[in-house]
Amino acid sequence: MQYYSINNRNTRVDFKTAALGGQAPDGGLYFPEHIPSWEKGFVTDLKRLNKTEIGFRIMKPYVGGSMKDEELFNVMAETLDFEFPLQKIHDNIYSLELFHGPTLAFKDLGARFLSRCLGIFSQQHDAQTNILVATSGDTGGAVADAFHGVRGTTVFILYPSGKVSPVQEKQLTTHGGNIHAFEVEGDFDDCQRMVKEAFRDQELMKMASFTSSNSINIARWLSQQVYYALAYAQWDEEQIPVVSVPSGNFGNICAGLTARRSGLPIEHFIAACNANNAFTDFIKTGTFNQKSSIATYSNAMDVGAPSNFIRILELFQHEYHSIKKVVSSQSISDEETLQTIKTVFKDYQYILDPHSAVAYTSLEKYLQLHEGKKGILLGTAHPIKFPDTVENAIGKTLEPPPSVMKILTLEKKSISITADYQHFKKNLQKFL
Ligand SMILES: *Cc1c(COP(=O)(O)O)cnc(C)c1O
After folding, report:
1. What is the full DSSP assignment across 342-385?
2. Distance, CA 247 to ligand 1 centroid (Å)?
3. 354 lines ligand 1 (CB under 6 A)
4. CA distance 386 to 372
5. CA atoms of 171 and 407, how far apart (whole Å)
6. Among the atoms of ligand 1, which is closest to the Cα of residue 254?
7. N or C: which end of the chain has fewer CB within 10 A?
8. What is Dmax (Cα atoms) for the chain?
9. How far apart are the C-alpha atoms of 410 and 53, rounded to whole Å?
10. In tens digits, what is the pLDDT along the chain, a chain of 432 residues?
């Protein structure tokens, strides 16, 4: 499989180059030159195949000649080494729980797949790959955990001091080894700005090989297709499911749409958004206007200009009416989010995190208008990651799982820097 840059279809590279580069040199996102159709029988076989086999078959056409089959198989086995249960909430709504991985967020899957791929590519060239990532909380933890101990990789995380939760901070700063955490006196935008500046710094780029691990990387994006198939493998209802996806940068839902194009039976998608509603407006009007982000309870979705929107356009040949047939969208307020967490706990004893609650509310609204249909929401985070909102809604204290108890006792190790690029660079160079 070749990948082209959305900015220029003539730029074509293989999986390895695209995964190592992150973004195309012209600044465009990479996109596969075609979407493979799954072979006949794969969908019916989903129920009897194990998850590694499912993941391997989905990703093989994308990874192509960039690694050996047995390497890809091992990458998949390690990536999927936790549970993806489909939990029934009530007769019409199920939750695909994607938060049983090491950092309790769905980003674990994509980050683990990416880290193992980059590990293999570094060894093929006997070269060191450095990963730079700015985080507002969740991404950094998933990336740190995924890359920890992966040979040939070194990770540098920038996070805003005092602006991530205690659990998130420990997830970023307690690994040691090949993971280095820079604690920045500033906010997330400062962290992001310094990472962007580093990638533009020719002197630095010549010193070592750097890549980024954010959600625009094809290895992270495309591997997310696997859990949509794992959901269908557990689906026992007659109706083809409607799927509701809590969306911020739209990498997750775009992976689901890609799996559907390959042949996965999904009736309809709902892009579940919080007050950041640029996509909801697009579905309503056909016009896309990016906005500045608004802070909400579901803060991992506080994105005003979703970077994977362009990939959704590309997947549907920029035809608004084709998109609208398959995808609808809802924008859910903080009040509704809180109310949903409360009601679902009271009625069904099921605890939603704020992101999953946005997806639940959106799905419920859709099902009210479409009688007889049933749906799945993607549970993207464990409620313990957002204790303030959830405890406030359900009126009781959450019990932290053992992994969280353990990480809170570990010692934080971070490098304090100011929000000045030169200060960051000087400290970074010490590790190169
Ligand atoms: C990142 C994140 C999202 C948004 O996913 P996108 O792929 O960016 O749309 C939703 N929920 C949680 C908990 C997240 O961490």
Report:
1. HHHHHHH--PPPHHHHHHHHHHHHHHHHSTT--EEEEE-B-GGG
2. 6
3. no
4. 33
5. 7
6. 7
7. C
8. 62
9. 36
10. 999 999 999 989 999 999 998 889 888 999 999 999 999 899 999 999 999 999 999 999 999 899 999 999 999 999 999 999 999 999 999 999 999 999 999 999 999 999 999 999 999 988 899 999 998 878 899 999 999 999 999 999 999 999 888 888 999 999 999 999 999 999 888 998 899 899 889 999 999 999 988 778 999 999 999 999 999 999 999 999 999 999 999 999 999 999 999 999 999 999 999 999 999 999 999 999 998 889 899 998 998 889 999 999 999 999 999 999 999 999 999 999 999 999 999 999 999 999 999 999 999 999 999 999 999 999 999 999 999 999 999 999 999 998 889 998 999 999 999 999 999 999 999 999
Q: How far is CA 222 from CA 170, 273, 381, in A?
A: 28, 21, 19
CA torsion sign for 256, 309, 168, 422 is: positive
282 secondary structure, DSSP code: H
207 CA distance to ligand 1 centroid (A)? Answer: 33
Q: Which two tokens stand for residue 373?
A: 């249909």
Taking CA atoms only, the protein residue closest to ligand 1 atom 8 is: 249
Q: Which residue has the tokens 């493998």?
A: 233
Separation of alpha carbons 364 and 92, rounded Å:
9
Helix axis angle, 107-125 to 138-147, nearest 10°: 40
How far, in Å, CA of 75 to CA of 68, rounded?
Answer: 11
Q: Which of 85, 112, 80, 79 is nearest to 97 (CA)?
A: 85
Which amino acid is it at 220? R
Q: Is 215 in the pocket of ligand 1 (CB under 6 A)?
A: yes
Is 252 near ligand 1, meaning CB less than 6 Å away?
A: yes
**Helix (H) or strand (E) segment spanning residue 422:** helix 421-429
Cα 328 from Cα 366, distance rounded (Å): 9
Query: Among 98, 107, 252, which is best to mutate for testing ligand 1, by the most ligand atoms less than 8 A from CB?
Result: 252
Q: Give residue 377 CA to ligand 1 midpoint distance, Å.
A: 13
Strand order in the sheet with 93-97: 86-90, 93-97, 375-379, 242-246, 268-273, 327-331
Enter the tokens of residue 50. Answer: 């194990």
Q: Is the CB of 107 under 6 A from ligand 1?
A: yes
